């Protein structure tokens, strides 16, 4: 039996599979010591969802736990308006919609569908600039759905020992670069 994968790992894995290891290693460490400013700000932006203060409408699910048997995923949604069928993932500030972001939304979408909800649209909300970014449903973007499924297969077959980082830009934005033996940052940048 395969263990279910946290939906948050989808974005983390696309960013850098090794970051998941470090995130788990520092899991219970004080956030002020183990997170960068962007992560702390993101956590702060999520507070309304985490404490279910985003909406007082009964039809809006907030921080709702979900599970998808088909893909072996679990996690929580940010918000789902059950009356409108709108699933929204909130981010502190969106400058680029990365594949990992979309994969998280797909995981949430498939979980809700499997749990019997009717999801008509999926989107991102950028907290800092109050912008909404609509995303095509998986059935409307076959190429992205294939990438989503390939990413899940890659997570399940990932070999820590065989991983070689290829993207220095990711290392430059990684809070774990200074302790990672796979980092492509030079010692001065760490």
Our count of helices gives 8
* CATH architectural label: Alpha-Beta Complex
Low-confidence stretches: none
SSE series = EHHHHHEEEEEHEEHH
Strand order of the largest sheet: 2-5-6-7-8
Number of strands: 8
What characteristic shape results from the CA principal axes? globular
| Structural class by secondary-structure content | alpha/beta
Helix content: 25-40%
How is this structure best described in words?
With about 190 residues, the protein is α/β, with parallel strands linked by helices. It has one domain: Lambda Exonuclease, Chain A, CATH 3.90.320. It contains 8 helices and 8 strands, in the order E-H-H-H-H-H-E-E-E-E-E-H-E-E-H-H. The strands form 2 sheets. Strands 2-5-6-7-8 form a 5-stranded mixed β-sheet, covered by helices on one side. Helix 1 crosses helix 2, helix 1 packs antiparallel against helix 6 and helix 6 packs across helix 7. The model has no long low-confidence stretch (mean pLDDT about 85).
Summarize the structure.
The chain has 190 residues and is of the alpha/beta class. The protein has eight helices and eight strands; from the N terminus they run βαααααβββββαββαα. The radius of gyration is 17 Å and the shape is globular.
């Amino acid at each position: 039996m395969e263990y279910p994968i946290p939906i948050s790992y989808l974005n983390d894995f696309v960013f850098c599979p090794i970051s998941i290891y470090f995130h788990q290693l520092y899991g219970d460490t004080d956030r002020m010591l183990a997170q960068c400013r962007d992560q702390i700000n993101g956590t702060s932006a999520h507070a309304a969802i985490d404490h279910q203060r985003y909406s007082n409408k009964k039809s809006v699910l907030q921080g709702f736990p979900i599970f998808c048997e088909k893909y072996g995923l679990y996690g929580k949604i940010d918000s789902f308006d059950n009356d409108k069928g709108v699933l929204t993932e909130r981010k502190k500030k969106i400058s680029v919609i990365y594949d990992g972001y979309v994969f998280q939304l797909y995981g949430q979408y498939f979980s809700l569908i499997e749990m019997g909800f009717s999801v008509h649209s999926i989107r991102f909300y950028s907290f800092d600039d109050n912008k909404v970014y609509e995303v095509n449903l998986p059935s409307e973007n076959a190429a992205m759905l294939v990438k989503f499924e390939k990413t899940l297969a890659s997570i399940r077959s990932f070999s820590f020992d065989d991983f070689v980082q290829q993207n220095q830009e990711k290392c430059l934005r990684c809070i774990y670069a200074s302790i990672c033996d796979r980092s492509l940052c030079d010692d001065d940048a760490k």
